[in-house]
């Protein structure tokens, strides 16, 4: 661990960033970080999360497939948008594609619960990266829901992508973003339906 902070401090200080540089975690350290996904809550022990590591020369190939997906989904996609996505996919120190190995036919575990488990895995991954001093951001965009791109990456339907995690060392260490207080998002149920102060936003 690069940072000597408590687990709760980790949860209360994580913030996304795409302002990243090398190094990204490798070897045993990366394996330890990735192991955090195996602690995600998971109804039925389906372990629906899959982690695809994209680094080195493979980043260029991913960038090309992502650009092809963007053009497939929108033939009029602006060049500027293509250039930005290509740049990020080709240059981030490490991209982890979070995939979902889904079983829609499962009679006991609804699809939403399988997807929620993958979401929890993604959250654990972000926190584990933060706890070890790395930075990350989870991004999606319409390409995430392109079954052709998903198939090219190893997730043919019914499997799918949950998103792309850009990972590296934050250029600005200890970057933080302000958070709202939680109170408007909490209520005490007393027997009647509640409304939350946050609902009025
Ligand atoms: C499933 C999912 C998909 C997301 N996709 C994008 C995205 O495509 N672009 C983006 O800017 N942020 C996206 N975000 C939000 C960022 O990951 C991040 O949470 C947001 O910028 C707020 O920063 P914070 O994590 O520090 O609160 C996504 C978040 C989730 C959970």
UniProtKB/TrEMBL annotation:
Cofactor: FMN
E.C. number: 1.-.-.-
Nitroreductase domain span: 14-168
Top-level taxonomic group: Bacteria
Cofactor comment: Binds 1 FMN per subunit.
Statement: the UniProt record of this protein carries the keyword Hydrolase: no
Any Pfam family hit: Nitroreductase
Annotated binding of FMN, by residue: 14-16, 39, 43, 138-140
Molecular functions (GO terms): oxidoreductase activity
PANTHER family cross-referenced by the UniProt entry: NAD(P)H NITROREDUCTASE YDJA-RELATED (PTHR43821:SF1)
Similarity comment: family membership: Belongs to the nitroreductase family.
UniProt protein name: Putative NAD(P)H nitroreductase
């Amino acid at each position: 661990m690069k940072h000597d902070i408590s687990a709760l401090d980790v949860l209360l200080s994580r913030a996304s960033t795409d302002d990243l540089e090398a190094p990204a975690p490798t070897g045993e350290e990366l394996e330890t970080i990735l192991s955090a996904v195996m602690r995600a809550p998971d109804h039925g022990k389906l372990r629906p999360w899959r982690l695809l590591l994209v680094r080195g020369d493979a980043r260029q190939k991913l960038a090309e497939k992502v650009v092809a997906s963007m053009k497939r989904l929108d033939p009029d996609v602006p060049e500027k948008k293509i250039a930005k996505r290509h740049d990020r996919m080709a240059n981030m120190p490490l991209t982890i594609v979070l995939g979902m190995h889904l079983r829609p036919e499962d009679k006991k575990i609804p699809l939403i619960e399988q997807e929620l488990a993958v979401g929890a895995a993604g959250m654990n991954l972000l926190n584990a990266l933060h706890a070890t001093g790395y930075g990350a951001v989870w991004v999606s965009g319409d390409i995430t829901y392109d079954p052709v791109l998903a198939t090219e990456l190893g997730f043919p339907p019914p499997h799918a992508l949950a998103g792309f995690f850009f990972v590296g060392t934050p250029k600005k260490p200890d970057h933080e973003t302000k958070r709202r207080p939680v109170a408007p998002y909490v209520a005490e149920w007393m027997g009647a339906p509640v409304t939350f102060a946050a609902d009025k936003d």
